Amino acid sequence: MENIEYIEDLFEFLEASPVNFLAVETARRKLEAAGFEALDMRDEWTLKPGDRRYVTQNGSAIFAFIVGEGPAHSGFHMIASHSDSPGFRIKPSCEMPCEGGMTKLNTEVYGGPILYTWFDRPLSIAGRVMLRSADPMRPEARTVHFHKPMLVIPHLAIHFNRAVNEGNKLSRQKDMLPVASLTGGCDAAGAVRRAVAGYLAVNEEDIIDYDLSLYSCALPEIVGFDSSMMCAGRLDDLSMVHASLTALTEAAATPSGHTRIAAVFDNEETGSGTKQGAGSPILEHILRRIVYALGGGETDYMRAVADSFLISADNAHGLHPNYVEKQDPTVHPILGKGPCIKVNANCKYMTDADSAAVFAELCRRAGVPCQYFVNHSDVAGGSTLGNILTSQIPLRGVDMGAPLWAMHSACETASTDDHVYCIRAFRQFFSE
C-alpha cells in the first residue's frame, strides 16, 4: 500500500469527525495549520492574489479557497463534497422510561442509513449545543464529542423471531431506539442535558437547545490479506472531504491563475435544501464576493463562471462480488482501480462527454487510473451536489467518487489505493 500516511491522516480525520459539526471543526483546524484564515459573511472582504481564506456556514459547512493570481474575471476550480452522513438524531425531550426501570432515547432517522447495521454495537453521542449568551440573537455554539460508548440498539433474539434471516421489516420508531440505562441510573428525564452540561462544565439551565446525533464507536481499520481495503463509518462522504482539503492544502504553494475552492456542504443526505446545503445560494454568494473583493463587477463574475470547472466528489457504488447482477452489465467499477466518473442519461449527474474528458485527462496527467459508473437501467439513480449546483450556477463539471461497498452502512468498505488516487487527481486539478 502506497502513501500510508494519507490513510493514517484520513483515519484521524474520521475519528475526530463523528458528525457534521465536528467534521467542519476538524477541517477548520486542518486549514488553519496550512495558513488559511477565517472570513465572516457579515464583514467586508479585502482579498489579494494568493490569500488563503475560509468561510463557515451554520457550523456544519465550510468553504476554503486560495485566491487566484489572475484578474477578477479568472475562473474557479472547485471541488464539492458534503459533511453529513445517514444516522440518527436525538429528539427533544428524548428520555423514555421503560418497563423494569430501563431508559431508552427517542431518536429520528436522518437520511437513508442501512438500519440493521446499527444494531448491537456500542454507540456514542456528538453534535452541537446552543448555550445562553448576552445576545439572544447569537447564542453560543459549542461542540460535544463524548469519546466513549454510551448507548446500544439491541436486536431481538432470533428465538423470538425465527424468520429474522428471511427478511425483517423494521419500525424506525419502535425497533431502532437506543438503550441508555438498565437501572434508571441516568435518572430518565433530562439525562442527556445533564450529560452535556457535565461535558461542557456549564449549568443545565444555560443549555437552550442541541443538534445531537448517534455515532458508532468502531474505529477505522485497514482490512485484507494484502491490506488493500479500509472499513470505517462515514467514508461517504468524509473521504472525499478529506481528499479535497488535503489536495487544496498541498497545492497551496503552487500559484494558479484560477481561484481554487474546496466546498464542503451539509445536508446532502436529505436533499440539500438548507442554508448550508448545495440547494442554497451560499456558494454563488461566496463566488460573487471573491470577484467583487478583487475589484470586479457583475460582468467579471459571469466571465469567471464561464471559465470555471467543478468536481462534484461523492462516492460511487463499487462492484460487489456477491451481487454482480446489481451493476450495469458492461460498466462496473472495481475497488482499487481508481476514481469513478459518474454518468446518467437523465442528468442525475452533471457529467457529460466534455467534463468526463476533462477529469479523465486530469487523472492521466496525475498518473491515476479512472473508471466509469452508470446505474443498471432498471435502477433509479439519485441526485448529487453537482446537478443541484448547476441549477443555480451554469458550471462545467463532473460527478465522480471513489467506489464503496455498503454505502450508508454504519461501516462502509473502500480501497486504500483509491483514496490516494483521488488525492492525486484533485491535486492535479488544483495545480492546473
Topology:
Blueprint: H1 4-16, H2 20-33, E1 37-38, E2 52-57, E3 61-66, E4 76-82, E5 87-97, E6 103-110, E7 123-131, E8 140-145, E9 179-181, H3 191-200, E10 207-216, E11 221-223, E12 229-232, H4 235-251, E13 259-265, H5 282-293, H6 298-306, E14 309-313, E15 316-317, E16 340-342, H7 353-366, E17 371-373, H8 385-389, E18 396-401, E19 403-405, E20 412-415, H9 416-431
Parallel strand pairs: 1-2, 4-13, 4-14, 14-18, 15-19, 16-17
Antiparallel strand pairs: 2-3, 3-13, 5-6, 6-9, 7-8, 7-10, 11-12, 12-20, 16-18, 19-20
Key features?
432 residues; 9-stranded mixed β-sheet; 5-stranded mixed β-sheet; alpha/beta; globular; Aminopeptidase; 9 helices
Fold and architecture overview:
Helices cover 25% and strands 25% of the residues. It has 432 residues and is α/β, with parallel strands linked by helices. It folds into two domains: 4-85 and 233-431, Zn peptidases (Aminopeptidase, 3-Layer(aba) Sandwich); 87-216, Aminopeptidase i, Domain 2. A nine-stranded mixed beta sheet has the order 1-2-3-13-4-14-18-16-17, sandwiched between helices. Strands 11-12-20-19-15 form a five-stranded mixed beta sheet. It has a three-stranded antiparallel beta sheet with strand order 5-6-9, with no helix packed on it. The chain starts with a helix and ends with a helix.
